Amino acid sequence: MSLTGLYIGHVNSLTLIFDQLKSLGYTVVGYRIIDKALRLDVLKTTEELARDVEDVQDPGKYSLIPGNFYRHGPDSPKKFLYPPKLLLFKVTPKWDVIINSEKYEGKLAFFGIKPCDLASIKVLDRVLTNVDELYTKVRERMAVVVENCTSSGNTCFCATMGTGPRARNSFDIAYTRLGSKLVIEAGSELGLRLINQLEVEPIDDNTYRDFEVTIRKAASRARANFEIDNLPELLELNIESKVYWEVIERCLGCSNCNMVCPTCFCFDVLDIPKIDGSAERVRVWDGCLNYTYAQVAGGHFRPDLWARYRHFVLHKFAYWIKQFGTFGCVGCGRCITWCPTGIDLRETVTKVLRGMAI
Amino acid sequence: MKRAQSKALTPMKTTVIKVINETWNVKTYYSTLPESAEIPKPGQFNMLYIHGVGEVPISVSDISNEDRVIAHTVRFAGSVTYAFSTVRDGDTLGFRGPYGFGWPLDLAVKKDLLLICGGIGLPPLRPVIREVARNRDLYGRLFILYGARTPKDLLYRHEYVDYLSIRDVELHLTVDNPDIDWRGNVGVVTNLIKRIEVDPSNAYAFICGPEIMMKYAIKELLEKGFRTNRIYLSLERRMKCGVGLCGHCQMGPYFVCEHGPVFPLWFISKYFWVDQI
Prior knowledge:
The complex is a heterodimer.
Chain A: E1 7-10, H1 13-23, E2 26-34, E3 37-42, E4 53-58, E5 61-66, H2 78-81, E6 85-91, E7 97-99, E8 107-113, H3 115-128, H4 133-140, E9 143-147, H5 158-161, E10 173-178, E11 181-186, H6 189-196, E12 201-202, H7 205-221, H8 231-237, H9 243-247, H10 256-260, E13 267-273, E14 279-285, E15 295-296, E16 299-300, H11 305-324, H12 334-337, H13 345-354
Parallel strand pairs in A: 2-8, 8-9, 9-10
Antiparallel strand pairs in A: 1-11, 1-12, 2-3, 4-5, 6-7, 6-14, 10-11, 13-14, 15-16
Chain B: E1 12-23, E2 26-32, E3 45-50, E4 54-64, E5 69-75, H1 79-84, E6 92-99, E7 112-118, H2 126-134, E8 142-148, H3 160-164, E9 169-175, E10 185-186, E11 203-208, H4 211-224, E12 231-234, E13 250-251, E14 254-255, H5 256-259, E15 262-264, H6 265-272
């Protein structure tokens, strides 16, 4: 929720916000270019922040071109809130259990993430708060500076999922870049403190109109061909749909979709024997598209790829609501972009709803 | 419902005090629970951990509240359970739990009990048999239908005499492949359901076994007139955490470890029949 209403300033003041966060002791995480992709990383200065690029995202395609607005890459905040690999404990040969007691004292600030990413944190809140110790601790001391999307990518559908292109709540600062103008609002006391340091004034009518039109235009493109209204029920009614069978003809079962998904929370537990006779237990991300996901000794509950893919779709759009009271999908489109064969989740859902084959 | 914490993944230590060879590939491990550990209820399971090898979810197969001794019956089927085959008395195991919901014995009071078990599905129901034997007047008649692949695979064979000494009990055994000495029934366990004379409105059916067997058992029971709230089944799924966090055990929207493993049929009937749900 906005505490201030919209203010207007100059884009240069973003540097000030960044520096302020640093001086307040935050570890600032933002998008930088690594290996020709936007990656979320810890940044020392705003110089490291990706700039003058645009990400071109299509089903199975990702590239960076010169431009002035970008969305995201394969990483999501999940990487920092719910690490891909985490040592849980170590058991010595004499059976002393030593719990990994790494303290999470740092303060984390996300800078310039997009509304879909912010929404994904809100989804993870439902799943992990007071459940996962590390998540809960990091989350308590976390700041978010979110950038509203002025242009949506080809795989985006946040407007359909109701998560973007403008962030409405749960941020400290939300800003929108309109040329050299910066439309900015605070959503928390920290945000107020940060904005007070800037040279800003209440937004004027013309800029507001410009802002509205830009957001509306971005929203109109960030849509899938379905409505979420009664989507969960319809998907469950069509649970035997043959569309899943047809879609997976292209699926490799690589679980890239799970790995890039900002809300997928499944993990595997690895017990690793060490050379000194001790053993470690490590938690690593797992995904429902993996062959072994539902495999047990002497049996397999989802041996076929269509069943695993169907579980992915139904979990995001139906089961998640029953489990956690919210959709598991935020419409960021990462699973579409980073699918090696460009399987389009929006298309799958649309086809299942229409009850027709490809 | 209060959800578990991921630090719940840390095992406690226990010592195996007795190992019993049940069949050529099944053994039962008795261990004493530490003071801090909760005593499992029939139908609940523990996560058992072998140092450096891994963890498996195993239902409790015997419970002694007085001396805090519990048993787990393990069939050697995968990498961790095979490692169990070398576990002896005196060895240390890690364990967590108990987890999940067990059999609804409180509902079954004064009712007839129909236990339908296939293969390694008997161990999770053995504590129910023991409970009925201990508090005989609390429950109605007891029917135990048990099927195994061969006579050699029948578990707890030395105990059947005890089962038969329980008042108002019927024990029906069957095997898929008889050997030359077998004088009993041949065929799947679900064939035995027709023979049972029971009033479905005054009975509960508890089922545990391979999923295909449970599906046929349910069909037989529904035909007999059992309603879906009187049929309970214990489901198997891959479980890595046991507390509804890791996601592997999902069946539709349910986390089998957390919401089950014992479900009333009406809970899950919408999803249970869907292929590879």
